[in-house]
Amino acid sequence: MGEGGETIAIAEENGGLIVDSGETNSTWPAMRFDVSPYRTHHFSKQFRASRNPNNFLKGLKWSPDGSCFLASSEDNTLSLFYLPQDGGESNGYGVTIPEEDSYGASLLVNEGESVYDFCWYPYMSVSDPLTCVFATTTRDHPIHLWDSSSGELRCTYRAYDAMDEITAAFSIGFNPGGNKIFAGYNNSIRVFDLHRPGRDFGQYSTLQKKKEGQAGILSTLAFSPTNSGMLAVGSYGQTTGIYREDNMELLYVLHGQEGGVTHVQFSKDGNYLYAGGRKDPYILCWDMRKSVEIVYKLYRATENTNQRVFFDIEPCGRHLGTGGQDGLVHMYDLQTGNWVSGYQAASDTVNAFSFHPYLPMAATSSGHRRFSIPDDDDEDNNDVQLKADENCVSLWSFYVTSQENTSDEHNNGLASNSHHLNVTGEEENA
To answer: Which pTM value belongs to this model?
Structure first.
């Protein structure tokens, strides 16, 4: 197949969008962050009809091919939602916060205990059923590999402690090659071969005999997207370690987080690392080429919560979005570290914000643990009363600047009669 045929094939896999490798000018849609996005779909009611009356969402992640997203909740359930073919509402005004859900989950996976972490297979494509899998790690259980089409358990990866008892991983992630699963434990990382389920694994201690290295529960990990062989591992010991993927050699340890690290993510070019922690109001930016000091800090309202709050970087790599306890989603320019905009996504804690892999969309999940006050006079009415925009998942569509007006907006601000595209590709007057 020639170069043109390959480009067309890639475009078809990405929903009609031609995506560059990064070596030439990017054709990613230029999302507008000066205008608030509009809600296209909303889900809340199905998370409340649960055997756990105090159920709440804990996070969500888009699949690599963008066909669906996976949401984790406190009732040990993972819910899979497929994205409608139109991508969202076409009127450009979105939907109000409805009492009824936009549609139901296509698949529910029930785990036996609390879900610590989950991740998609990096080459997942809905057109290839063999790749439609995701991994989970739960308390007192081995790592599970689930089929996202049928909900069946494909296989398990078991780690044992010194007493020959199963020990659970606190964080998991596939390496960029997709042939290994890296799992974070207490003071150690175990590496499983994806094609060899069972109890075979390689173990690497992150703490040396002289107490040097990275100590504590390894709560999050992320690989560099540029195939540089670098792995970032966050710890509840308030440190982030940078390792070589091939032999797990510790390159250096980053200090400065006020709380335990709960999420790390590399920039799209792999030169910067962003780390956020619990009870810590700042996402720290580190330069991987000169990791002596922090480049800048991005504020978010997380100083009073132990919850893991996921942030994400847009496909272009220019902006970062993050939620917080105030229910707001904040957007930051990663070139300057300056705040760009924000919008109200929920009435409670926004614990996850995730950009769609190639469409100008994003998803948010919200919720936190609540405690009802017992009432002796009315024992049957002690359930927590929630509003429609609490403990919910919402899909958001961003306005997109059309290419012919990009130069005018950069030079003169917004043109009075400029046209913009919504997620369906239809033009609208700004």
So the answer is: 0.84
